[in-house]
Amino acid sequence: MIDWKNVLRIFGCGALSLLAALVLFLLVFVFSVQSVFLNPAHWETAVFEMDLYSGVKAVIVNQLDSMLPPGIGFADASFRTSFVNAVFEKHWFEAQVRNLLVSFFGFLNGQTSGLSLEVSLVEPKAKAEVFLNAYAAQEGLGSVFDASDFSEFPDSLNLLSAAPEAAAGFAQVKQFVSLIPVTLVVLTVVLLLILFGLMHLAGVPGVWVCAAVIALVSGIFFLGFSFLVQGLVQPLMLQSLIPPSQGWESISMDSSRLVEVFLNEWILLWRVAGVVLFLAGIGSLAVYWKKRSKMLAVTGSLKQPSVPAASDLSVGVD
User: Fold this and answer.
1) Of all residues in the chain, what percent carry a pLDDT higher than 90?
2) Cα-atom radius of gyration of the chain, to the nearest Å?
3) Which residues, in sequence order, are CB contacts of 253 under 8 Å at separation 6+?
4) Is the sign of the CA dihedral 98, 101, 104, 107 positive or negative?
5) Contact at 8 Å (CB) between 269 and 36?
6) Distance between CA 28 and CA 98 in Å, rounded?
7) What CA–CA distance (Å, rounded) separates 208 from 23?
8) Whether 55 contacts 244, CB under 8 Å
9) How far apart are the first and last CA of the chain?
10) What φ, ψ does residue 118 adopt, rounded to 5°?
11) Does the pLDDT at position 32 exceed 70?
């Protein structure tokens, strides 16, 4: 006769185990997005390690004629390079990057209500005046440039003014980011409730099987997701980047490399987690079989009929 109570218990344990694997997948997904993509210090390290400064300088060199006041010619490429190296120094670039990242992620994380992405031009304007006057003096032209020659240039550059539609997109991203802490708490509570239910249904030996199912299925999910991102999502994201216009090829290449670096790190995180969970699942199965074998051995010894010892037997004497 079929023990329907036991069948339902096994079915419930299997369903809860699969549900726990799904919740664990979502929990790691949300956490990985927060830790990899929403960490300003992480972005700062990546930008500096990839030396985007060189790409930015190359763009400025190529666009220099259209950026300076009329009458200042820079036909000589070596002179343009010297000018850019003197005016746009690396410490200035790094300071602007830090300010932009702090402002941007402060907005996304709800630390500031408004988004301000401004690059200070005060230092480059002052250095440009000094450099050009030094060059003019060297050529015997005297002091021909002063602050008024650069008065038409603002003291700061608002990056959002060039793409006002981006502000609306960032506001939508902020709404998504604001849900991450709540989502992590909810998923954690749900996962704990599922695990508590599994312990109640499966008991001590059976809970190891449930743990193995959760770990193995989660490991397969994680590994499959990493290959999906690498095979489909990563190429689509790289192709969706704006094609480089003339003079901006280096920045476009650096942006593609930066996106690729973060995606590769994300993929690596999923694969490491997948392998760890898969091995944990195998370990849980090993623990279960060990405990099951031990329980069967104890049960078998209890059910085995006892044989009286020879000394206990009474022998009759005629």
Assistant:
1) 8
2) 33
3) 55, 244
4) negative
5) yes
6) 28
7) 18
8) no
9) 54
10) -120, 140
11) yes
Q: Give backbone dihedrals phi and psi of 63, rounded to 5 degrees, phi first.
A: -105, 10
What would the pLDDT profile of 61-90 be if each residue is shown by its tens digit? 776 655 555 445 555 667 778 888 888 888
Tokens 């602007």 correspond to what residue?
A: 96
Half-sphere exposure of 162 (CA within 13 A, CB side): 6
Going from the C-alpha of 214 to that of each of 77, 84, 267, 283, the distances in angstroms are 62, 57, 21, 12
Q: Is the pLDDT of residue 51 over 80?
A: no
pLDDT digits (tens, 9 = 90+) for 15-28: 888 899 899 999 98
**Whole-angstrom Cα distance, residue 23 to residue 16?**
10
Local structure of 179: helix, strand or coil: coil
Q: Find how far residue 141's CA is from the centre of its chain.
A: 54
Residue for token pair 């279960």: 288
- CA distances to 21, 82, 106, 173, 280 from 136, rounded to whole Å, are 71, 14, 44, 49, 72
The residue length of the chain stands at 318
- As a whole number of angstroms, the distance between CA 134 and CA 144 comes to 10
> Which residues 6+ apart lie within 8 Å of 12 measured at CB?
201
Per-residue pLDDT at 27? 92
Q: Alpha carbon of 236 to those of 20, 30, 170, 259: distances in Å?
A: 31, 21, 21, 12
Which spans in the chain are helix H? 4-37, 40-49, 52-62, 64-67, 77-87, 90-108, 122-138, 159-162, 165-178, 180-228, 234-240, 249-303
Cβ contacts of 122 within 8 Å, gap of 6 or more? 155, 156
- Euclidean distance between CA atoms 40 and 107, whole angstroms: 11
pTM for this structure?
0.70
